Amino acid sequence: MNLDIDRVFQALGDPTRRAILDCLSLGPQSVSRLAEPLGVTITAIGQHLQVLEETGFVRTDKVGRVRSCRLESAGFKAVEQWATEHRTAWERRLDTLGRLLVEDTD
Amino acid sequence: MNLDIDRVFQALGDPTRRAILDCLSLGPQSVSRLAEPLGVTITAIGQHLQVLEETGFVRTDKVGRVRSCRLESAGFKAVEQWATEHRTAWERRLDTLGRLLVEDTD
DNA sequence: CATTAAGTGAAGTCGTGGCTTCAGTATCTA
DNA sequence: TAGATACTGAAGCCACGACTTCACTTAATG
Questions:
Q1: Would you say the C-alpha torsion A54, B78, B18, B54 has a positive or negative sign?
Q2: Residue range A27-38: average pLDDT?
């Protein structure tokens, strides 16, 4: 199950979606509980949750009429994998530059 | 110099922009050299480069009529920082779930 | 100096994304 | 069983983003 890295980053590019993740980092929540503090419709949350599920950040589980949402690690791992894969190229590049220039890291 | 994390992730959410970063990981390039393999206009590349500069992924330097582009680390570091900041919350959550049933935790 | 090359700026097109409303469908509760 | 609760699906609105074209500026080159 290979995640689309485009969609993974796009998912994180939305503040409402990151807010959902922050809420869920405190513990599982229902859809309507997520909607309350975020100032958007339940429908909107539902749509965001679909994106977050498809990108491996959230897993949901409907019990009765309530959908319970919790964090999942796949999306997060995809980000970390991208980071580690690119860190080397980055550092090699910046390394090379470091020999030619003064090393000014901010 | 705090980067907007929204824009950082949005920047990475575009395949053309990630392709630009991949090209630059092989070494500095001019705008037109970047445009060649990517099948878009020089203008489009210019617009992407503006985004990548604002999000700390690229630094450019115009010499004569040629703009030379190379990788920068700030954007990359912002991603890694976000990852490390959230890894703990993620792991704690997934940990806790291991011991509990899914239940209302309020 | 004239011509070509490299890039910029402004404007417009087109598709997508985030959001809403509204009309359902289950499910729980009095 | 009636009514409230928790969502879901479809449709539409609107803004923004990726891209183009075209006109332009600036720089290298014969």
A1: positive
A2: 96
Percentage of residues of chain A with pLDDT beyond 90: 75
Q: Which nucleotide is nearest to A62 (CA to C1')?
A: D7
In a domain, A105, yes or no: no
**Where does the pLDDT of residue A105 fall: very low under 50, low under 70, confident under 90, or very high at 90 and above?**
very low
Strand D and B99 CB separated by under 7 Å: no
In a domain, A68, yes or no: yes
Number of structural domains found in chain B: 1
CA dihedral A90, A96, A101, A104 (to 10 degrees): 30
pLDDT digits (tens, 9 = 90+) for B29-57: 999 999 999 999 999 999 999 999 999 99
Cα dihedral A97→A103→A106→B5 (10° resolution): 30
- Residue from the list A6, A24, A90 with its beta carbon closest to the beta carbon of B13: A6
- Tens-place pLDDT, residues B48-82: 999 999 999 999 999 999 999 999 999 999 999 99
Rounded Cα gap, residues A18 and A51, in angstroms: 12
Contacting residues of A for B52, CB less than 8 Å apart: none
Dihedral of the alpha carbons of B26, B29, B33, B34, in degrees to the nearest 10: 70
Q: Tokens in use for B39? A: 């099948």
Residue A96 lies in a domain: yes
